Amino acid sequence: MIATNTEPTETFEIANGLTFALAGAGGRGNMFAEWLRSNVCAGAITAIAEPNSERLRSIAEMHQIPKERQFRSFQEMLEVPKLADILINTTMDCEHIASAVMAMRAGYHMLLEKPMATSLADCATINRVRIETNRSVSVCHSLRYNSVYSEVRKIIRSGAIGDIVSLDQLEAVEVVHQSHSFVRGNWGNEGRSTFMLLSKSCHDLDIIIDLVGRECISANSFGSLYYFRPENQPAGAPDRCVDGCPVEESCPYSALKIYAGDNSWSQHAGLANLTMAETHERLRTSPYGRCVFKTDNDVVDHQVVSLQFEGGVTATFTMTAFTPWGGRYLRVHGTKGYIEARIDQRTIELYEFWENNKHSHIEIEESEGAHGGADSIVISSLIKAVSLDDASAILTTTAESLRSHAVVFAAERSRREGRQVFLSELKSEVA
């Protein structure tokens, strides 16, 4: 057994004097706000834009943000003279293009939540404006900074498994997560957000491209909304879970089961710290109280992507809602060895064919924070880049992200059009 920890030791004295603005105080925005309070200082965020009064108040109190620096929209905040050095941009996906361009032109460096934008042309615009304004921008593809993936990358680059021939990745979304975020929630409808492969899995394709280390030539993809459809609503089930559902006891998607009580799902839905009566009342009007088979969702609940890289290397990616647990699982097949990694369990199995099939079991030490500690490294790397004027600290620049986003858009075009899509077809959109 080999114990290792690839997360760098970071000294946050380097952030001394840097200030931050926050656009969007949902789950991700709140997480970064808490990280800054713990690792830089309370008061590091000097301005906030958030339409939800309760969320705005919470972050404002956390960082003692004065009233005149509290805004109800990113437009209001970015129209006034620059209020901080770095903008943490966790607005909704469809708002990324406007908020990112405004921020860079207003003088902000930026941490931009993935995806970059909801069209490839808008992604290209963000990259072009970043070059024009010479800002430091990190796109939050957290998996690039995850210590398990970092160890896998190190093994691959060492030559221990020879040349990569093929790679497979599974993203297990988990049934309740799917129902909360991608059926009832903000990302369930493409018109309000974007397609599933972009909103949920763009950093899966990004890490695959990074590990393979070759140009992607083409994509094939298949998938659909299979299960969360009106025709699958159980007989006698009401449109809202609080109205007496005959299958409540066995249904894993019962809103009363998921959101009653103080747990992470009730917090995400804005239903925490309520009495049972208050929870019932809120679920009568909240989108999270709807039967999962009778919402306005239209994003896929399963998808498979096949990628062809230069030199004949192939990769597959599977996203599925239908797992009892969430997480990512990776297999890398090389000419001299094989890697199997359980990302969330933080284990790697390495087999080296040319060393008498030597087997190494590698355990990666636990890291604090979201995405296995990767989000901490994402933001600390941006802080280092801005403080030292060293862009090399950022692994996921807008240029790198544009490259992997093009593959995501090619894969989705393949799914919709039922054909193999070559990356060369998208050249005009990324120019």
Write down the domain tally.
3
Biggest sheet architecture: 10 strands, mixed
Low-pLDDT ranges: 3-11
Q: What do the pLDDT scores average to?
A: 93
Shape: globular
Gap between N and C termini: 48 Å
Tell me the strand order in the biggest sheet. 1-15-14-13-12-8-11-10-9-16
Second CATH tier, the architecture of the largest domain: 2-Layer Sandwich
- Rg over C-alpha atoms, rounded to the nearest angstrom: 22 Å
What is the name of the CATH class of the largest domain? Answer: Alpha Beta
CATH superfamily of the largest domain: Dihydrodipicolinate Reductase, domain 2
Strand content: 15-25%
Q: Tell me the CATH topology of the largest domain.
A: Dihydrodipicolinate Reductase, domain 2
Would you count the extended β strands for me?
16
How many helices does DSSP assign?
15
Q: What fraction, in percent, of the residue positions are helical?
A: 25-40%
Structural class: alpha/beta
Descriptive labels:
15 helices; 10-stranded mixed β-sheet; 431 residues; Dihydrodipicolinate Reductase, domain 2; 3 domains; alpha/beta
